[in-house]
Amino acid sequence: MSRNVEIKAKVRNRDEIIRLARELTGKEPAVLQQQDVFYNSPEGRLKMRTVEEDEVARSELIWYDRPDIAGPKESKFYKLDVPQEISETLSVCLSEQESAVD
């Protein structure tokens, strides 16, 4: 099982953040389009994430557990790269809770 810490922050100067990212990585920023579809899960959260980058799409099935609190929070998760057919099958078999687009 993997773990990470989620921190959300407001950005007041987007151009400065992009400049710092370029300086730290030596690369241009990448634009990711994400769509999450959440499924009912008795424990934690289960979602199918579709990510599009440079006009190439991929799907990830992600289960995670994270407290519902403000501020930094640790998530424990499993993430699998899956073919699009798995996403379509889950949409038919499991009831969807909601969708989110980033």
From TrEMBL:
Residues 3-91 form the CYTH domain. It holds the Pfam family CYTH. Gene3D superfamilies: Hypothetical Protein Pfu-838710-001 (2.40.320.10). GO terms for molecular function: pyrophosphatase activity. InterPro entries: Adenylyl_cyclase_CyaB (IPR008173), CYTH-like_dom_sf (IPR033469), CYTH_domain (IPR023577). PANTHER family: CYTH DOMAIN-CONTAINING PROTEIN (PTHR21028:SF2), SI:CH211-156B7.4 (PTHR21028). This is CYTH domain-containing protein. It comes from Teladorsagia circumcincta (Brown stomach worm). The lineage of its organism: Eukaryota, Metazoa, Ecdysozoa, Nematoda, Chromadorea.
